[in-house]
Amino acid sequence: MNYVLGIDGGGSKTVCVLMDENRQVVSRGEAGASNYQSIGIATAKQSIEFAIMAATDKAVNITKPITINAICLGLAGVGRKEDIEVIKSVVKDLQNSQLLPINWALPTNNILICHDALIALVGGTGNSVGIVTAAGTGSIVFGRNHQGITKRVGGWGYILGDEGSAYRIAIAGVQAALKAYDGSGMPTSLIDIFKVYLELSNLENLVELIYRRGWGVTEIAALAEIVDLAAALGDRVANQIIDDAVQYLVVATSTVIDTLFSDRPVLEVVTTGSVWTGKAKMHQRFTASLNQNFPEVKVIFPKHEPAYGAGLLALQKLQHISGK
Amino acid sequence: MNYVLGIDGGGSKTVCVLMDENRQVVSRGEAGASNYQSIGIATAKQSIEFAIMAATDKAVNITKPITINAICLGLAGVGRKEDIEVIKSVVKDLQNSQLLPINWALPTNNILICHDALIALVGGTGNSVGIVTAAGTGSIVFGRNHQGITKRVGGWGYILGDEGSAYRIAIAGVQAALKAYDGSGMPTSLIDIFKVYLELSNLENLVELIYRRGWGVTEIAALAEIVDLAAALGDRVANQIIDDAVQYLVVATSTVIDTLFSDRPVLEVVTTGSVWTGKAKMHQRFTASLNQNFPEVKVIFPKHEPAYGAGLLALQKLQHISGK
Description:
Chain A is an alpha/beta fold. The first copy, chain A, has helices at about 35-40, 40-60, 80-95, 115-125, 155-160, 165-180, 190-200, 205-210, 215-220, 225-230, 235-260, 280-295, 305-320; strands at about 5-10, 15-20, 25-30, 65-75, 105, 110-115, 130-135, 140-145, 150-155, 265-270, 295-300.
């Protein structure tokens, strides 16, 4: 039996699935973050190793020995050649690891390193064709068509892009509250909701929190929940923010559809990320708006997790080779 | 003869003017940054001391001895009580400094510590009434009326506010270029202008520059010049960005006018900061738009620098006391 590893490495955790040649997940493990640009390559490597260990330790009790014939790593922020070289050397090191209870039979060709949007697409749709519209802390829209052509829109990070993301919704909410507070914007219940939720005596303390306590992108993005709640409660300003976010994601997704599926847009759009599960019905708004122009597009939630998608991609490598 | 010190402490430099009781600047000195929240209190104190030394060293050659009877420090980001206490202790230390060739006769009441918008207003108008619409790296609108009532709009910093500022214009320009690049936005010459100006082979390298080289707010804000240039050359997208910036500053300024000068808005609005001197005629656009609603408002460039305004405020303290 052939086995492959599918790995999803992100900013908060690393997931590894061990998959057999029949697309069955034999076992699954988790470890800490592995976005090496933020945490350093040594820590990232350790997280990947631990995730593999967590997955394979369980498996060897059932089936042994296990020989890995292909691996796919989908990693946040990995796109440039330099990044791929760094990760390739990590994989080389893993093959010499004393910790892992597995054997390797891994031709260079069977090592696939890609960005996290691709594995989210493959896991989300269960195949390699379609679009993923990701809107969590950050945002990106990525698609691949039947010819294997890919297209990306957005994903420019929290300073330059990420419209439609939780971070940008949160920032827009705080900005709107501050504008209502200083009189330069429309009144909004966001002032009171932020104050109650964050236990602030004064809205200006929010500025304090964000600048002086050094809140990062993740902490700020968590405030999107408050904006979502205010929108669900009927606040006009909050609803405008949610609509703007939806509208950007519709434009970005439409751009990918037009580029890749111009002939006949029958496809699945997978929505991933925290913004889709709020109370303000972003998912419904998005689907309704997208279907106005593309009635045959199906907006779905992921069928499988990204690590599963990585497993499928690793399997393709295997079949590609064995089919030669 | 009575003397006062007016000090303007900012993120890039500290300016000190020595002013006599007839509002005459006897001498002027400069030193490094003194925004203590970023650089620490020791360095900030040193910059303030050096600026005073630079100003007074020159003066003692002309007039001596010099006794300082009042001081006003206008400092970026200083507004909270805690900040004011910190700066008060700095002034105490300065009075014991061995470096300064001056005497002090400084009742606690004659020490005025305020934020930089107030001294910009007083310096800019040459008196204490009016509005300052500041749009440099950051933005804030601040006004004071004949009753001494003040009102501030904006000034929430680069993450939460600063609309109309160079930083926000720059970010909007880069975002627009990236959207044109990935197809989700309108075409714009900003792509080519950024590439040529920053010598990039590919626009995506800009993302590299900003995230991986750790560009700060100041470096990013400098890109506003490019957006301004593109607007002056007729680019529609860039002109929209400039118009949005102007429109925010008009709304913010109008909010202050409505709050403070509702009866009869005959007043001066002083524009300070780098955005007003670009090639895209932001100053003219702002004036035209503001005058539609407030035809009697005069939009002016500063008559004097902020440190001069600090000197005038220190002098008011003096006259207030001696008039008792």
